Amino acid sequence: MSDVICIDDLRRMFAEAGAQIRDHHAMLSQLDCIGGDGDHGATMLRAMEMLESEMNGEDDRSLNARLKDAGWSVLGVDGGASSALLGTFIAGMGDVDMGRESDCKHLAASFSAGLRALEKQTKARPGDKTMMDALVPAVEAIDAAANSGEPIGRALERAADAARTGAESTKGMIARYGRAKFLGEKTRGSADAGATSSALLFQGFSLALSQHKEA
Fold this sequence. Notes:
Layout: E1 4-5, H1 7-35, H2 40-55, H3 63-75, H4 81-93, E2 102-103, H5 104-119, H6 132-147, H7 152-169, H8 193-214
Antiparallel strand pairs: 1-2
Helix pairs in contact: 1-2, 1-8, 2-3, 2-4, 3-4, 4-5, 5-6, 6-7, 6-8, 7-8
C-alpha cells in the first residue's frame, strides 16, 4: 500500500486535534490569563469546531480545497489574533495542490505553505514566545522527514515532538508580542498558550494516524 493520506485520514487528524484541544482547553485559558485575555482555550474550541465541520463535509473537494475552506471558516471565529493566525495557517496549507490523496512530500509542502502565509501576517519568529515557537520547528521537522523519505506517520511524529519541545522552550522566554509584551519578566516561567495549543494540534495529527495504523 502506498504511503498517502486521503480525506478520511485528514478527518481523523483534525478530529484527534480537536480532542486534544477539548481535553486541555482549561489549561490553555489558564496560560493565557498570564499575559492575555484568558480566552485562548475557548477560542481554540470554537476554531476546532469549524475545522472539524469543514473536514466532515460530504462532497468531493480536494484535500487542499478543504483546508482552504477550513482556514477561511476559522478566520471568521471571534477570538482575536489567535483565531486569525490559525486560520491563516490552515488556509495557507491549501495553497499546495494535493488532489484527493497526498504523499509525505506534498503534505510537508502544504505545511510549509501554511507557515509562509503566516509569516506574511506576523513578524513574530521563534524566540518571541508565540505560536511560532512550536509551528516553525514542527514544519521544519516534517519537511526534513519527507526529504529523507520517511513515511507520513513518522514525519508527523517528528513534527509533534518538535512542536512539543518548542512549546516547552517558551517557559524560559519573555513575551515580545501581544498584550503580554508589556509584562516583561513576569511572562517568564510559563509556557505560551499559542505555542502550547499548536503543539497539541500536531500531537493530535500524529496520534490520529498512529492509532489508525495500529487498529
